[in-house]
Specification:
- The protein is mainly beta.
- The protein has two helices and twelve strands, in the order E-E-E-H-E-E-E-E-E-E-H-E-E-E.
- The protein has a seven-stranded mixed sheet with strand order 5-3-2-1-4-6-7. Strands 11-10-12 form a three-stranded antiparallel sheet. A two-stranded antiparallel sheet has the order 8-9.
- A hairpin with a 5-residue loop joins strand 8 and strand 9.
């Protein structure tokens, strides 16, 4: 079905909301929500009828280009013996980052790759925002919790080379 976009909000890179005029509300990644402008006409295919579609169960297209779901592929790589028999195979599921834990894993992998606590690869936010090469251990109490410490949330990942994915300028 074709809908006009009433509004869009970007909360974080991994959470965004698109409100369709006379249609459902779409919850998807903030990166994708950023690409959609109010007043645009989009095509939405759903697997049912509901007022709020959360990350799954719908496809979003603009001018025939798929915006949601993000790219995903499965790859199998067999390991062969010297005689040509398949001993075992690796099965990989490769996809674009879309959840908060994906962005945290990216920051963790970059930290492992650069192997330094002094190289800043992400901004982490707990009670205060701090620049760090890895997820910091906080000693500040989190509001509404009885224990000291709390959940950290990756706020933004710093591109190391100065460019984003596929050579796009870093934001």
């Amino acid at each position: 079905m074709r809908f006009s976009v009433a509004s869009r909000e970007v909360f974080w890179r991994w959470v965004g909301r698109v409100q369709l005029a006379d249609g459902p509300t779409l919850l998807l990644s903030g990166d994708v929500a950023r690409w959609i402008l109010s007043g645009e006409v989009v095509e939405v295919e759903t697997e049912g009828t509901t007022d709020i579609l959360k990350f799954e169960g719908f496809a979003l297209r603009r001018k025939g280009v798929v915006l949601w779901p993000p790219w995903r592929d499965e790859v199998s790589h067999p390991r062969m013996s010297w005689s040509g028999k398949t001993l075992y195979a690796y099965r990989l599921v490769v996809r674009e980052a879309m959840y908060e834990r994906d962005f945290e894993a990216i920051a963790e992998l970059e930290q492992f790759h650069y192997a330094s606590e002094h190289e800043v690869v992400a901004l982490w936010r707990c009670v205060l925002r701090t620049r760090a090469g890895r997820e910091p251990q906080t000693l500040l109490p989190v509001w509404g919790r009885d224990t000291v410490g709390g959940d950290q949330r990756v706020h933004a990942r710093k591109p190391v080379s100065g460019t984003g994915a596929r050579g796009a300028p870093a934001v």
